[in-house]
Amino acid sequence: MGCVKFHLLLLFLTVLMASHAEAEDFDITKHGATPDEDITQALSDAFKAACDAPTKSKIIIPKGTFPLSKITLAGPCKAPVEVEVLGTVQAPADTKSFVGLDSWITFSYMDGFTLSGTGTFDGQGASAWEVNNCHKSQECVKLPIGIRFDFITNGVVQDITSLNAKYFHFNVLGCKNFVFQHVTITAPETSVNTDGIHIGRSDGLIVTDTNIATGDDCISIGDGTKNLTVTNVICGPGHGLAIGSLGRQAKEEPVDLITMQHCTVKKAMFGVRIKSWPSAPGKPTVSNIRFEDITMEDVSTPMLIDQEYCPHNLCNLKSPSLVKISNVIFKGIRGTSSTRVVASLACSSGAPCENIEVGDIDLKYTGKDGPALFTCSNVKPILSGKQDPPACTEQAGADLPAAAASA
Length: 407
Ligand SMILES: *[C@@H]1O[C@H](CO)[C@@H](O)[C@H](O)[C@H]1NC(C)=O
Hints:
- The longest helix has 18 residues, at 2-19.
- The chain has a 28-stranded parallel beta sheet that branches.
- The protein is mainly beta and 407 residues long.
- The radius of gyration is 24 Å and the shape is elongated.
- It is 10% helix and 47% strand.
- The chain has one domain (2-132, 140-312, 325-395): Pectate Lyase C-like.
- Helix 2 links the parallel strand 1 and strand 2 (57-61).
- 2-acetamido-2-deoxy-beta-D-glucopyranose is lined by residues 177, 204, 206, 227.
């Protein structure tokens, strides 16, 4: 009897110890990886082992340069998985191997996933930007997103660098409780569609202490994004911090509860912006949006609602956007603009903006051909605090500031 009890005790202790064990490490070099050779198989094997581990585990990509062709690492896993990158993970330079694929790396269907380390994902995007013709044709070559996170709950991306993605750097879809912190995203100002972080159909996200320099939006927020907080982000060059573009597709979900605070946008085309497509079927609502304490340094248009978003004349302006924007606060937006229209609320005649608060605006135009302008249409903002320049002195329209100058 005593012997059976002793064995039961041992079994119990073993189970107890296993569940309290330290994170198990899976170094890819122990799964066949060597520097400067393709690690696709080794990373896939290491992930399989980590994903099967009963306790939380860490895959390590050590110092060195590791080419990676393309990979999808999908759960569900038995316990949380971390991928720690210390070296450089390098994409193929060509785009041929990505035909029909929408990403270079995809992490998906995990509960508890961390991507960490001081390493770099190098998308080698230069040749892709050359073949990107999406501004000319709607049936353009689809280029791969750098890293996709699909359907991850409790995700963290921290410390890593994403360099020169072929298309968007990071894409977040269907995620819940997801944090980017202390991340660096870098691509040249001239690179095409290299959005820093694109988020859609996700709930409960934080982007903080992150530095984004790129050729398109630093952060872009697609339909179905709920409860996102962006703080202490430095953005620029690029196209700024954007909600949208929205409305282009028929079935888009609401965007709700987005806060962007304590950020700096520098040498960018736009500062903070909400954009929606005219002559488009989608009509998601956009509500409970707060832009607060944003410093602009040499930004073309620092503050903008643009419901006539129609790049490359891909649409007909005669039929207004159906996207309804309400409960938006712009507060403490200050700094310098390189064009005369420093702020514009160009709301839709088809769905006028409601309950837009504008407070403590201090935006200086650095040019000499006239005073700074704050234009409006289809909106009556609620004003408070400082208003420099005064709001809504001119009608918002595509032909400003020439029209304003002649008025
Ligand atoms: C929003 O998300 C944060 C962080 O993920 C979470 O702590 C908070 O409870 C959420 N708030 C709402 C209203 O859902």
